[in-house]
Structures are given as structure tokens and as C-alpha cells.
Specification:
Blueprint: E1 3-11, H1 15-21, E2 36-39, H2 50-64, E3 80-84, E4 92-99
Antiparallel strand pairs: 1-2, 1-4, 3-4
Length: 101
């Protein structure tokens, strides 16, 4: 299986939606812009948010197995994907790419 590099590319925060709909929480996300994780054999890397992992797991596993070309040419690099976590108040975008060795 191939290794997959997961990079935090963008972090958004929708304070207007949070003010209107969210119950206040003290701690929501540990991700940091530019942070890199490496998935070995399609497994969740240590320190990766469980909720974020659930959003990207199928893509990571497919890339690790040698697949790609999601949605018939969606990405310029067919062995990559841009995936966001499912937090509607503070979504984080992750770039997934196969590490060629």
C-alpha cells in the first residue's frame, strides 16, 4: 500500500453561524494550518481528528490502494483529493496526495 500525505490547507470559521446556531464550546479543533499527517496503509494517523478522518477515510484508503481519479478528473493530480471535515461552523480543508517513493 502507498503512503498518503494529508496537509491542512485552509481553516475557516463562520462566526455568524456559530452565534446563531451553535451551543458555545470551549475547544473545537486541534488542527493547524500547514500541519502534515502521514497515513500508513490507509490508517488514521496519530493526532488526526476522528471527525475529520471520517470525512476523508474512503479517499485515503482508495489512494493508499493505488486508486484515484475521483469524479472523472476532478483533481489535476489524479492521485490526490481536496477534502473538508464535516464541521459546518469551522471547516478545515485537507489536501490528500500519494507519496511516491
Amino acid at each position: 500500500m502507498k503512503r498518503v500525505k494529508i496537509t491542512v490547507m485552509r481553516m475557516a470559521c463562520y462566526t455568524d453561524l456559530m452565534a446563531q446556531y451553535e451551543n458555545p464550546i470551549e475547544h473545537a479543533c486541534d488542527m493547524q494550518l500547514g500541519q502534515v499527517f502521514i497515513s500508513e496503509a490507509g490508517e488514521r494517523p496519530e493526532g488526526m481528528c476522528q471527525s475529520a478522518w471520517e470525512s476523508m477515510e474512503q479517499f485515503v484508503r482508495e489512494l493508499a490502494a493505488g486508486g484515484g481519479n475521483f469524479f472523472d478528473g476532478w483533481m489535476r493530480n489524479p492521485h490526490s483529493a481536496m477534502i473538508s471535515c464535516n464541521d459546518g461552523f469551522r471547516p478545515v480543508s485537507f489536501y490528500l496526495e500519494v507519496i511516491e517513493e
